[in-house]
């Protein structure tokens, strides 16, 4: 049976891989993102049934507008929108700037997921699944970004309890270092990259497809008794930075 899937932040990197994974399985995928250009490129790939629409998932008005273009029943929600905003809140001495930049990561990575999930609550199908994309940063004290991802995992526990009676699962996939994404914005040095890879048991960087396959598993019949969990997909990363 074809399912309706929403992947937020689906234009690039992990989100794109997740959208393509579900589309290749025959599902109908709705992919959103803040930038129209990557979404247009994704749609041009013609990999299965992928429908794209720009949406800022931190904006209630934008999310409300999206609802009119989604089906009445949604089987899988993947909250991938977010990423490090690039603002170094801890480097600010002006309090107003500090709060603004700290909140930017909370809004992008935590509030966006909560807002989108809340807006779609009544459309989530019995037997459906929600998967949030977290980060290894949640366990490493990585500033406001790490705090936002840690908050995402904590908030998901309550969500799993609330949706469990409806047979809807809610889990977090927590990636380690994943290459071929825009996360580091070309600022990752060769030395830092080598250290990140060396910290893994497998001795390689992760790929967007590694995360997509894990998301696909949590949204599959094989994972119906898994909820309220954080699945670490990091190649066995074991060393603190």
Automatic annotation (TrEMBL):
CDD domains: SDR_c (cd05233). SUPFAM superfamilies: NAD(P)-binding Rossmann-fold domains. It holds the Pfam family adh_short_C2. Residues 3-181 form the Ketoreductase domain. GO terms for molecular function: oxidoreductase activity, acting on the CH-OH group of donors, NAD or NADP as acceptor. InterPro entries: KR_dom, NAD(P)-bd_dom_sf, SDR_fam. One of its GO terms (biological process) is fatty acid elongation. SMART domains: PKS_KR. Belongs to the short-chain dehydrogenases/reductases (SDR) family. This is 3-oxoacyl-ACP reductase.
